[in-house]
Amino acid sequence: MGCPKMTEANLYLTMKGTNEGIIVYLDDQCSFKALLNELGSQMKSETIENTTEVIINCQNRYLQDWQLDEIRQVVEEQSSLKVKSIESNVLSHEEALTWFDQTTIKPFVKTVRSGQVLHVEGDALILGDINPGATVNATGNIFVMGQLKGIAHAGYAEGTEHVVVASYMNPNQIRIANKISRAPDYEVQGSSQEFAYINQETGQIELDQIHNLQKIRPNLTDIVERGL
Amino acid sequence: MGEAIVITSGKGGVGKTTTTANIGTALALQDKKVCLIDTDIGLRNLDVILGLENRIIFDIVDVVEGRCKLQAALVKDKRFDCLHLLPAAQSSDKNEVTPEGIKELIDELKPDYDYILIDCPAGIEQGYKNAVAGADKAIVVTTPEKSSVRDADRIIGLLEQEELEPPHLVINRIRKHMMDSGDMLDVDDIVSTLSVELLGVIMDDEDVIRASHHGNPVAFQPDTKASICYRNISRRILGESVPLMSFDEDKGIMVKVKKLLGMK
């Protein structure tokens, strides 16, 4: 990110107005205490009356949750500014792994058989069939290159934006987030190249041809948007 | 060194025991030394189908618990010298033997036989675990019904977790006309759902029931459909490449004549 061009120079703080609003850059070399002190005094002298949102950028300093809370507290107590978000160039190893886990597609080359339950963090790519009575749960999307005849649960827990895509769709059930849709009671022929998603207008799970996926979920592969 | 093959299905009543008896018989007809082990302790049937019930003196539980030598418990078949049966106990239950106990026993039998066929009880509990413990290979039996295919799928999933070769499939009780009318799953559907290699199919045939009733496995009969199916399976186990039997019903002489004359 580099050091931004200063518009108002302080010892440890740099404020900059951008299209997104005011960004406050915090020095990442001084002590946290010194930073808080300066932040407090600087905010107090701030003359902005109306509630404006600011983005705080910690640059290359790693801050823990309690430190983030303190920054937020200092800013909002000493001034009428609201902290929109706190950004940072760094994240912990653990967070990085979680992020990686949430945003990579996990391939499985196998037939998921009756009675088996496959739980996947992130997106699941099943190169095989999901047989009747089998379950695949994924926190992200589910892509099935074989026949989906069992149960697929995408957005396991709360991902209402996630989809289930199958090259042959004839499932027992499709579940997305907290919605469940089941096959009709009469015998049905499956259909090829379809996907299931939650239609936000009706709030129900619907099926559509795979070529409409780009219209309905244009951001499907923007995996960075997900998780963290 | 022999090969131990477990015959299993998950669901009950699909023909595990009949299949074990008949594949065993068919292998014995090919001069192979075969030992059949019944692990359905408490509900033994294999001896009845082979017609050997009256000859049982000791059983598998006696062997595992050390009450008799393994050789003493083996029952020789009345038709072949090379076919032996290790019967299950009828008065105990499946928890009296452990997978380790069975494995040890099978390892002891292996040097003396070409094939050891293990008849597995229905279910996926203790009895199944006992039966699978000593096996090198598995044959999954299913019928063309949804429920039994579902259970076969479950059992194949469980077998994949064992250190076995990928299981082979036998589809039992095929009725050609019901498959044609779509009232039964057809062979291709079953094979593609279970995605395992097909070892053979067996036509539904009254002769199987008749043969079991008289304690003579159907595989002895020279010309019934089911017996040919079983003998084909045994030849495939021996490594021969045998095409699947045609499902077409026997045509009467008139049909053949008409065909000859180009009328049909």
How is this structure best described in words?
The complex is a heterodimer of chains A (228) and B (264). Chain A has a 6-stranded mixed beta sheet with strand order 6-8-10-12-15-16, with helices on one face. A 5-stranded mixed beta sheet of chain A has the order 1-2-3-4-5. Chain A contains 4 helices and 16 strands. Chain A is α/β, with parallel strands linked by helices. In chain A, 28% of the residues are buried. In chain A, helix 1 (32-45) packs parallel to helix 2. Chain B has a single domain (3-260), classed as P-loop containing nucleotide triphosphate hydrolases (Rossmann fold). Chain B has helices at 16-29, 46-50, 60-64, 70-73, 99-109, 126-133, 146-160, 176-180, 187-194, 206-213, 225-237, 253-260; strands at residues 3-8, 34-38, 75-76, 83-86, 115-119, 137-142, 168-174, 197-203. Chain B has an 8-stranded mixed beta sheet, sandwiched between helices. In chain B, helix 7 (146-160) links the parallel strand 6 and strand 7 (168-174). Chain B is globular, with a radius of gyration of 19 Å. The interface between A and B is small, with 12 and 11 residues. Chain B: Belongs to the ParA family. MinD subfamily.
Keywords summarizing the entry:
heterodimer, A: 228 residues, alpha/beta, Transcription Regulator spoIIAA, Pectate Lyase C-like, 2 domains, 6-stranded mixed beta sheet, 19% helix, 36% strand, disordered N terminus, B: 264 residues, Rossmann fold, 8-stranded mixed beta sheet, 12 helices, ATP-binding (chain B), ParA/MinD_ATPase (chain B), cell division (chain B), CobQ/CobB/MinD/ParA_Nub-bd_dom (chain B)
What's the SSE blueprint?
The complex is a heterodimer of chains A (228) and B (264).
Chain A lengths: L7 E2 L3 E6 L2 E6 L5 H14 L7 E5 L7 H14 L3 E6 L5 H11 L1 E4 L8 E4 L2 E4 L8 E4 L3 E7 L2 E4 L9 E6 L3 E4 L2 E4 L8 E9 L4 E6 L3 H4 L12
Parallel strand pairs in A: 3-4, 4-5, 6-8, 7-9, 8-10, 9-11, 10-12, 11-13
Antiparallel strand pairs in A: 1-2, 2-3, 12-15, 13-14, 15-16
Helix pairs in contact in A: 1-2
Chain B lengths: L2 E6 L7 H14 L4 E5 L7 H5 L9 H5 L5 H4 L1 E2 L6 E4 L12 H11 L5 E5 L6 H8 L3 E6 L3 H15 L7 E7 L1 H5 L6 H8 L2 E7 L2 H8 L11 H13 L15 H8 L4
Family (chain B): Belongs to the ParA family. MinD subfamily.
Pfam families (chain B): CbiA
Keywords (chain B): ATP-binding, Cell cycle, Cell division, Nucleotide-binding, Septation
